[in-house]
Amino acid sequence: MVGVVSDDQGFLDSRDSMKMPVVLVTSLANGDLALKFGYSTPDGSCQKMDMTLSKGAVDGQFSNAAMAQTDVRVVVTDYKHFAVLYFETQKGGVRNVWLQLYARAPELFPEGAQKMQQLAPQVGLNPSQGAMLPKSVRGRAQECLQDLPLGAAPPTEPPQRAPSSPRPSPS
């Protein structure tokens, strides 16, 4: 993940100290998506997180009730360099929106960043609510996931047809 835009106050408060995690995304046989994250923490240790996004009723839509992620969609991707995901969360009656930019390499892919900035106002976000994440300490985030096959390339074709645009912002 190389960039994030969100109205979540926790994110806004911590975005300046965030570093780029390593994320491994795997399409499961049942249509769900498995995500494994490896973060380098400020003290130099590793933090790992596994998450499964459950396939929704609509192709390209997912959710994760345990993480309060009620609507997750791949809104734009070129299947080679980047993907922008839309997340909607509901915690304690508060709705938050996220756009996350994923890339195959730990460098910013300009077209992906441009798409995320263009999408932000369409989902009720201001691009100023975002951050391009700096790289973690060289190799440290990768070490967090050393037991995973990081060299394996993700599928070049989508497991499902993704919607062409995110959920419109409320009026």
UniProtKB/TrEMBL annotation:
Residue numbers spanned by region Disordered: 143-171
The molecular function GO annotations come to:
small molecule binding
User: Which positions, given as ranges, span the membrane?
Assistant: none
Residue ranges annotated for the Lipocalin/cytosolic fatty-acid binding domain, each copy included: 2-126
Where are stretches of biased composition, namely Pro residues?
155-171
Q: Which SUPFAM superfamilies match?
A: Lipocalins
Similarity-based family: Belongs to the calycin superfamily. Lipocalin family.
PANTHER family this protein is in?
A: LIPOCALIN, LIPOCALIN-LIKE 1 PROTEIN
| Protein name, entry field | Lipocalin/cytosolic fatty-acid binding domain-containing protein
Question: What is the source species?
Answer: Equus caballus (Horse)
